[in-house]
Each structure stands twice: as structure tokens, then as C-alpha cells.
Design brief:
heterodimer, A: Cytochrome Bc1 Complex, Chain D, domain 2, Cytochrome Bc1 Complex, Chain D, domain 2, 12 helices, B: mainly beta, 6-stranded mixed sheet, 2 helices
Chain lengths: ~375, ~290
Amino acid sequence: MKRVSKIILLALLSTACVPSPDDTVDIDDVSDLPWAQPTYFPRPRIPTDNPPTLEKLTLGRALFHDVRLSENETQSCASCHLVERAFSDGKRLPTGSTGDLVPRNSMGLANVAWATSLTWANPLLTTLEGQALVPLFADHPDPIELGIATAVDDVEARLAADADISAAFVAAFGDDDDAVTIEHAVQAIATYERSLVSGDSKYDRYFNGGDSEALTDLEKQGLQLFFSERAECYHCHGGAFFTSAIVTADSVVTERGFENNGLYDVDDAALPGEHLGLFNVTAVDKDRGRFKVPGLRNVGVTGPYMHDGSVATLEDVVAHYVKGGALSAHQNPLVKTLDLTAAEQTALVAFLRALTDDTFIAP
Amino acid sequence: MKTITPFVAASLFTSLVGGTACTPGDTDPKGDPQEIAIPFVARVGDEAFACGDSYAGIGKDAVTITPGDLRFYVFDVTVIDDAGNDVAVTLVDDTFQKDGAALLDFEDGTGACDTGSPDVNTAIRGTIPAGTTMTAVRFTIGLPERLNHLDATVAEAPFNIPSMWWAWASGYKFMKIEAINDADDVTYFHQGSTGCDGTPADGFTCAYANRATVELALTSAQDIALDIKPLFADVDVEAPLAEGNGLRGCMSFGGDPDCASMFGAVGITYEDGEGAPTQAVFSATSR
């Protein structure tokens, strides 16, 4: 990171007794990545078996928008992940390519390179390569999304028959008969997704860019509340990515990042099992109702909200937290009744809207 | 980047050859600095602290708890020698120590210590001038201002642990100690600076420093015992919470009813965030 280099240089020039350089690799060097990121973002952790290249990124962008990656050629990743909604879809719940309703709200993909895990409640999906297989291959009894479980050969043949796409596979993965594979497609898509970096909102210009006029007074009031004990938001939604569920190239301890925010009373026997979240994977009682803490960048355009899309607007989200949620015994104790006036709640919503990165969501 | 002058290059070469960061003893004619490790042993009353174990007699009503966390930062580590002089300890840089601060970590991720990390760090490691005889030690709990307003997302270890961090302005949790009762309710002790404000461009200030400085008579044959039982002595870790109050224990912020006694146990006056003359948690113990 340029900032760190300058500090080391100043130390060298200003004292005879210099600290010895750190002997680890400079993990702040992002010059090899085929995408730009703000200096106030860390290097993401990238699987060593899929180093990012511009060729993979270009292919991945094309495939992300390519309906030939669904069996019936009606849907692509982009069908439920639209750029103008920061790669969410504006619906409560999505519908797959064969008409199945998917019980999880489509998540925005901004800064997904730093996610500790993917999807709403699965600690085992720790790579984008692993996650991509879910919408591609999900089959009954799970809802079908792109539905290629029985059509892998067909999908590969379609792509191989397309001269431009084939050439892009070869450029990214080398010139042999096995260039056009679903495995390579997944690696390319993951590389493209890692490039979805969002860090240029009005908040960033104010906080990281030193522009004291970048936020209105109302938005600044909302910022103060967000990072205070009055609203408690920052405990789970803090940091550069507005979530604690972050992993970087330098992480020593990885937060799991799943919390119960009191959306439902998970001890209610009538509650459908899909609202138990993490518990359905771990079978550990304290994980009942825990879901991944999403990052809040671009939250102004990623509604409706929560794992089931059941909270329609940001005003409703703030009202949920002011109420203390379901006041359930399992919810995180920091989700409690809040003493915030109506004007303060309006300020919070204004601040949340100031987290939108207009460059990121431009088509 | 500017060209490095020969003077600077020579200094860099010397320090590279010398290995660790510079110490005042570098030019000591007696020889190379000596390594020192200041070990801590964590206890709950008379019993050794361990994640997954249960301890009776904790809190105002003497109930049973299991630990949820035990981690804290220290800096300004100083040895007092046999002539009564302060001798600064130069901390070695590694995963748990950086730039003069160390994270001590007694939880191993097992039991109810839900941190996802098996690593522990129970000693402060550094160097002091050769021939120093330790008779006492002094350290400050927490991080100095220059390290307390980083972004944990991009900071180097040990300042990149999100659960030990609050935010840019409010900084890090200096101590994070948690006890869990039989109903799975957590009693928290999250101590850090409060009343903080600012931006990276303007800098940050905090109204309440909340840093405790601990000084103990200590020889190289002794460990520092850290007993968390006194921390919870006046705290109700069991009764149902008052309406709308979801939090048990102390998270350092104003108006928190358990903070006065918990701060007092580690040697801080809650009302003004300054050091208090006594503390009940740290003591010297023979190995």
C-alpha cells in the first residue's frame, strides 16, 4: 500500500536506528490484480489454484451474462444479479430457470472477494468457485436455479461451438482440448466476481477522501449514530466493508460472521425450518436463526432486505432494530430496543443511502 | 520513490544484519540484548482458566460459568531493574506483537470460546539490555493512541481481528473477557476508549482513555497471574435482564451499571477513565 511505503521511507530517512523490514511477503501489493481497488481496501484472499488474470476476468464477465449456462438457455447469473442493483435483483425471492421459487433473497455481490463465506447461512462455502456450483447444479429436492446437473456436456458443447467464447477460454486457460469446461467457466466467473470492488460512495469521499462536504448534515448525523452505542449498528456492520464477516490475504483469525438479528423468534415451534439459518448446517443450538452479516455498501439499491426479503424498505429495517426485533432469547444481545427519535431514524436511513457507489452500479 | 542515501543504506544494512528492532542496548559494551519472556497464567479463582471448563462461585450470586473469551492488548512494557531503573522492553514483531504492542490471547477456540482460532499467546516476548535483573514489571493494558485508530480491515496482525475492534473512532477493545452462565447468557467485559470522535484526515480524540497501567514486583522465577474471578465479583451474571436492556456486563460506554466495579477490578476509575491506585486481577505468582 502506498501509504505504508511512505511511512517506511520516512522512518528510514529520519532516524539512524531503523526498524528492520518485515520479512513476510508484501501482502499490501495489489499491482498484480487485474482490477483496481481503493488504497483503503486490503488485498483479498484468493485461492492459489485460481490466480486472477485479465483473460479470466474478461471471460468470466461474458459467462456471468450468458444464458447458455442454464440448461434451458433462459437464465444467467445476471438474471438474479443485476449491476444496477449492485448485483441483487430487487425481488423478495428469486425464481429459477424452470419456475422453482428459491427461498433466499438474492444477495448483492459488491466486495464479495472479501466474504468469509458465501450465501446466507453456509460456513462451508468459503470460495466463490465453490459457491458458483450451487446455482449451476442445484437440483430437486432443492430448487432448480440454472439447472445444468444433467446437461454439463450440452453446455460445454454450446460454448465450444462458439468461436469467440472458445477463443476466450483458450486465452484464459491455454490451448488444449479441455479449455472449454464448466470447471474453467467457474474459475473465470469467480475471477470476474472478485473484480466487483465497490468503495467510492459519498461516505468514502467524506471519510477516506477528506472531503468534509461530501455528506449532508443529515447524513453526517446518521454516520455518528451508526457508529455509536445509540444505534449499535457498527458492532456487526462495521469496518471498511460494513460487515465483520470479512477475510483478507492477511487474516490470522477469520470471523464466522453469522448472527441472529431477531427477525423471528426461533424458539417458536411453528416457525418454518428455513428461518433457522446456520443451525441447519451446524446443528448447534446457539446457531438457531443465525445468518451471515451482509455488507451494507449499496444497501440503498439492494432491497428488499433480510435472508427472505421480508423487510421491504430501509425505513422498515431501521424500525425493526429500534423495536429490538423479535426480542427472542436467541438473538444477539446487541439487537435490543433502541432509543432513537423519528428524526434520528431518518438520519440513519440517509446515511445508509450515502453508501451507494454510483460508479459501481452504472450499467 | 526517492533514492536511498548511502547513510540510510548503511543504517538499513546494519539493522538487517542485527536482526531485531533497535534497542537502547544496541551500543552496550556488555553485548547483545538478552531475550525476555514475561509469562502470564490465567485463572478463575484458584483454578486454571480453560475454555470448555466450568467454574462455580462466580458473580454476585456465586453461580457457575464457562469462559467465552479472554484476550487483551498491552504496550509500554517496562522492566524495573535491581537499581530501581526503568528498562524498556523492546517487543519482538510476530503474529501477536507489532510496533510495541502485544495481544495476549488465552482462549483456544474450544468450548464456548467461539472465536474460530485455536492459537494462544500467553507471554510477552522481547529484548532488554544484557545483564538486566528484573525486580518488577509495568505494562499498560490497551493500545496507545497512535495504534488505536486503525482500520482493522487493513491493519497488520495483531490489529486485524474484527472481534477485537469497535470502529475507527472508538478504536479497539483493550480487553475482551466474557463469561457464559448455564442459560447460555453472556456477561461481557469489553473495555476500550470511549467518547471518541474524528476522521482519518482530522485525526481522532477520545474523552475517556480507559487505559490501566499495572505494576507488579516480579522476578524471572515468577509468572503474572491473571484472575478473572474478581472482575465479575459485583456483577449479576444470572438474573433476567431489565426490560429493553439486552446486555449483561460492561462495554465501557457511559451509563453502564456494571462498569464501575469491572473497571475498578482492573484499575481504572470509570467516572474519568483514568488509572486507579488498586487493581484486583493481576498478581505475581511463583512458577
